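Project standup — Tuesday

K.O.: blocked on the structure for the chain from last sprint. Re-posting the sequence here as requested.
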Amino acid sequence: MTTDTCSTTARLRRCLPRLAPPIRDEDSFATLGIDSLDTVEFLCAVHEEFGVRLTTDEFHPAQTFSELAALVAAKSTTPHAI
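H.V.: unblocked you, prediction finished:
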């Protein structure tokens, strides 16, 4: 895992303040018991933290934190159309 992905993962953890640490990189949202309201709140927090929007098609509850970190990192380096 690269340093960028590590820092992205740490920032993602901060987007879920209600969950008690430690959250491991291999933990998925499904195993953490994230419900639909938690998901919406998390996606809003990710947008605020990283400036990227993840659609419900891109976000899957089976994704691990490390997989999601890679997706967020990739989207944050991709130029956005205006």
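K.O.: great, moving the ticket to review. The chain has one domain: 3-77. DSSP finds three helices and no strands in the chain.
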